[in-house]
Every structure is written in structure tokens, then in C-alpha cells.
Write a structure and sequence with these properties.
Keywords: Signal. Helix content is 16%, strand content 37%. By secondary structure, the protein is an alpha+beta fold.
């Protein structure tokens, strides 16, 4: 058993050494040459590369991954600060849990007085609905409301149902139901290297410790896979590189080895 574990660790070290110097999730076109421009990567390439890297690591025990130190290399730039200003502006965005469908999720994304979207899935593997929404400020109360067209999801709801955003960012509906923002690693994130909400990152837990990560960069959408490791560490397999980050629950952020910080809204 010990020999198998050491062999697996050796494989992991070789893989990480081969990927050394590649930074995480930088979409800026004027970034360092070691970075990968995500806008130039096709969805098919993303999925193929993710599958390949996942296959390489399939024989590595979860304990070996969890014991990795998430420390930046010596030549890495200083980590940027979480973008709380933008997070506050979009506090009604996020990944929510519906009390009536606790195994599923709701993703609310959009700016005030502009067309946005809500993505719903009632359970893992279930049908995914993308519906239009518009958030605005109530002139009488000053509260933010979110008007959704749920007719394709539940015809009985009609073309308009309005939820009120509470002080803690939850969404309250006329029937008393509430969508509560997820407090764990699951969330809608601001990328420190790109403007939100046109560029946004979605993290959704999957089976076991795995997580699904969706990279939305304008009209480009990439799905990649990752692992939620113990002690707040997260590993994501991306085209041509494997990225390690540190999730800070209190700060609501993920800090990557290249200095990029994702801030949770």
C-alpha cells in the first residue's frame, strides 16, 4: 500500500513539474507569455484537455492531492486583493439553494436595470433551465427586486414572478419560499483579471469532492472539472495546465498561484 501511494505521488510530481510556470485562468490579452488566453480556446479543446488531465491523475489518491501545499512560486506576482466593491454592487447575484429543491441550485447573474439570467437545476443530472430576469430598485421601498420569467420552468408561475432581495442577499418570493446563498466553495465569482459580469466564474459541487467549474468569458463558455480538497484547497484541470488554489470561506475568495483572486458575489 505504501509503495502504491509513493508511486502515485511520484506521478503527481511529474505532472505538476511539467505544468510549472503556467498560470491560472488569466484572460487578459496583454498578460505574460506563460499565460493561456482563454478566448482562443474552443469548448471542445477545453473538454478534451480536461478529460486528459483527469485521466493522468486518476491513479493519484485524494490524500496525496490534499497534502499539496498551495504556495506561489518565487517568481509569482503578489496576490491581488478581493474585489469587494464589485461584489457589493452585485450582492443580489450568486449561487443559491432553494429550500424546496435542496439538492439543486439557482444561479442569478446580471446588473441592475439590464437583462440578466437565472440558471436552474433541481437535482444533479436534472434538466437545466436558463431563464431571463431583470433586477431593479423599487422606487417606493428602495429594495432591489428580481423579476423572472419562469414560464418555461413552471408554466403555472406565468411570465413574471418578482422576488425581493433581502439584506443578506437572499431572494424571497411571494409564496414565502426563499433562495439562500450558498456559503461554501460553490458560488458565482468575479475574476480578478477580467470585468464582471461579462466575465464570470461559476463553481458548483458535483459527486464526492469533485466540482464543476464554468468559465463564462463573454460569448465563450468553457466547462472544466476540479476537486475540492480538504483545508480549503481546490484543484482545477484546465486546457494545458492544472491549477491549485486556496478557498477562504471568511473572505469569500479563491486565491490562485499566479496571484489571481476570484471574489464571491
Amino acid at each position: 500500500m505504501t509503495a502504491q501511494f509513493l508511486s502515485s505521488v511520484a506521478i503527481l510530481v511529474i505532472v505538476l513539474h511539467a505544468l510549472h510556470g503556467v498560470t491560472a485562468f488569466n484572460v487578459a490579452s496583454n498578460s505574460r507569455s506563460a499565460n493561456t488566453n482563454l478566448d482562443a480556446v474552443s469548448r471542445r479543446e477545453a473538454l478534451v484537455a480536461s478529460a486528459s488531465s483527469a485521466a493522468i491523475l486518476a491513479g493519484v489518491p485524494m490524500e496525496a492531492l490534499a497534502d499539496l501545499d498551495v504556495k506561489p512560486p518565487q517568481d509569482a506576482p503578489p496576490a491581488s486583493e478581493p474585489d469587494y466593491k464589485t461584489a457589493t454592487k452585485f450582492y443580489f447575484n450568486g449561487v443559491f439553494r432553494d429550500k424546496k429543491h435542496p439538492e439543486g441550485y439557482r444561479i442569478v447573474a446580471g446588473a441592475l436595470n439590464k437583462n440578466g439570467s437565472v440558471t436552474l437545476q433541481d437535482k444533479p443530472g436534472g434538466k437545466v433551465f436558463d431563464i431571463p430576469m431583470k433586477a431593479k430598485t423599487d422606487e417606493k421601498t428602495g429594495k432591489i427586486t428580481v423579476d423572472m420569467n419562469l414560464s418555461s420552468y413552471r408554466p403555472e408561475f406565468g411570465s413574471s414572478i418578482v422576488a425581493t432581495v433581502t439584506k443578506d442577499g437572499c431572494l424571497k418570493f411571494p409564496d414565502g419560499n426563499q433562495w439562500i446563498k450558498d456559503k461554501g466553495v460553490a458560488g458565482l465569482y468575479i475574476d480578478g483579471f477580467a470585468p464582471y459580469p461579462k466575465y464570470r466564474r461559476v463553481v458548483i459541487p458535483s459527486k464526492g469532492r469533485k466540482v464543476d467549474v464554468t468559465m463564462i468569458s463573454g460569448k465563450q463558455v468553457f466547462d472544466v472539472v476540479g476537486v475540492d480538497l480538504k483545508e480549503g484547497k481546490i484543484q482545477v484541470d484546465f486546457p494545458g495546465k492544472q491549477c491549485l488554489g486556496k478557498f477562504n470561506r471568511k473572505a469569500g475568495s479563491i486565491t490562485w498561484l499566479d496571484g489571481n483572486v476570484w471574489t464571491k458575489v
